[in-house]
Automatic annotation (TrEMBL):
<keyword id="KW-0804">Transcription</keyword>
<protein>
    <recommendedName>
        <fullName>Zn(2)-C6 fungal-type domain-containing protein</fullName>
    </recommendedName>
</protein>
<dbReference type="Pfam" id="PF04082">
    <property type="entry name" value="Fungal_trans"/>
</dbReference>
<dbReference type="InterPro" id="IPR050815">
    <property type="entry name" value="TF_fung"/>
</dbReference>
<dbReference type="InterPro" id="IPR007219">
    <property type="entry name" value="XnlR_reg_dom"/>
</dbReference>
<feature type="domain" description="Zn(2)-C6 fungal-type">
    <location>
        <begin position="17"/>
        <end position="47"/>
    </location>
</feature>
<keyword id="KW-0479">Metal-binding</keyword>
<dbReference type="GO" id="GO:0000981">
    <property type="term" value="F:DNA-binding transcription factor activity, RNA polymerase II-specific"/>
</dbReference>
<dbReference type="GO" id="GO:0006351">
    <property type="term" value="P:DNA-templated transcription"/>
</dbReference>
<dbReference type="InterPro" id="IPR036864">
    <property type="entry name" value="Zn2-C6_fun-type_DNA-bd_sf"/>
</dbReference>
<dbReference type="GO" id="GO:0008270">
    <property type="term" value="F:zinc ion binding"/>
</dbReference>
<dbReference type="GO" id="GO:0005634">
    <property type="term" value="C:nucleus"/>
</dbReference>
<keyword id="KW-0539">Nucleus</keyword>
<keyword id="KW-0805">Transcription regulation</keyword>
<dbReference type="GO" id="GO:0003677">
    <property type="term" value="F:DNA binding"/>
</dbReference>
<dbReference type="Pfam" id="PF00172">
    <property type="entry name" value="Zn_clus"/>
</dbReference>
<dbReference type="InterPro" id="IPR001138">
    <property type="entry name" value="Zn2Cys6_DnaBD"/>
</dbReference>
Amino acid sequence: MDTASESRIIIPRIKPSCTQCQRSKKRCDRGKPHCSACVRYGRECVYLLRDDSMSVSSVETASLSPAKAPQDSEESPHAVFFLDSVLFRRSMNRLPELELSFKDPLLNFIGDFTSDRDFVHLYFSTLHPSIPFLSKKKFMERILNPLSPPRPASLLLIATMKLLADQRPEQGPRCKAYYSIKSSLLEAESSRSLELRVLQAIILMAVFEVGHAIYPAAYLTVGYCVRYGSALGLHKAVERYSEEGFSVTESEERRRSWWVILVLDRYMNLGCADRAFLTADPSKNSILPIDDAIWEENKEMNAPVRRLFEPPTTAMGRFSLTAQSAILLGNVFRSIHEPPFSEAFWQNDVKVLDSTLVALTSVSLEEGRHRGIGVCSPSTICYSGRLLLHDRERYAVDEFPFAATENFLPQDFKRDIAAGMLRLANAILSSGCCTTDEITPFCVEAIYRGAVFYGREHSRTGNLSDAAACATIKEALNEIGKRWRAATLYAQMIDARIVTGIL
């Protein structure tokens, strides 16, 4: 490099600039610089000396920064994934895998899962039958395989499974393990990774928080599931049998994961029906989960494809019925929120929806008897849906004036539902009849509503048998509370209703 060129780089060049528009400046006839923008708008140029060496220096420093380029490189696949999906699919088509280092508290909680697998057996024998969205065969072969080192996403899934399987945590639900997993899930999000196993861990965390009434965390975690699942494209898995790039088994697992999210999203709003659920209803042609027995045997290729428009049968399996009950629950929410065209139209719509809930309940109860299931989540969700549909207090009086009349709808079914919940309570309290392991978080709300019914009847008539029924159900809720803390809270709310007279 010659001396002249070297001096041009080192010696700063001073240029006048216009502070009105910060543009570079031509020379006018009088030798003063001016800019075209100021001339166009009739402004007088105001000059300021600018040191180009500063801008050159900053640009050179930024371009030579060793940390900036790798950071941009790491973020580009994730940014392209969201900003231009076509470009991503045709050029990259795969996001980087999760890279995460776990802290000692979480690693100590997980332990040596290759030798100590009691929690795995406990999870698959208790919670899994009612929410079977994990492929047990793939889990055992790939995640628990001692020949392959566990990936971070797999460890997160294992940790949440163990948290759910621990039925009596010494420190309560908000234990150190709970906060360690929540922290690791946040770090996984910060790592810019999107993986199905991470989503499944978040789903299990949502089930844990719903079951133990950890609010508002449960509500926010379910919303996180919706967004994460949508980013992975799981909402499309319910619309097609086989997805490009995925085997039949993988598509079924993705499909089931989305159905669990949809069920959680609907169930979350039972206590406060004014909240809008986040997931859109699948189309009538959407594919339901295959029969659970076929899923457990890993024979997806031979399973008949069931679609949402088909009438429910026991051959569909419990989880498929659970998915359908969630769809009907969503219809109930719409029925109590969307103002009808007329009273006659609304009455007919409610009667049709009620009949559909009754039909699905009957199939679910038959499914339970056929497969030896003490209590089925589809039945209790349908019970909750019917009670919500016929609850006058849930309707806005100004939009549904006819809902407040005495001839609203026949109320006899409420006693039938309450009687069913009383029988379930007696079975739970009777040794060996129905264990709390068979109760899922999706069952507890209907049990609570049964107790409220008996409490209201006792307040109205003074009948001692109603008071005894209410006390029995409350006792059963406290027993369930040893497994799911939400049930204990429901029992406390029964006491609050009775003391305050809010029945």
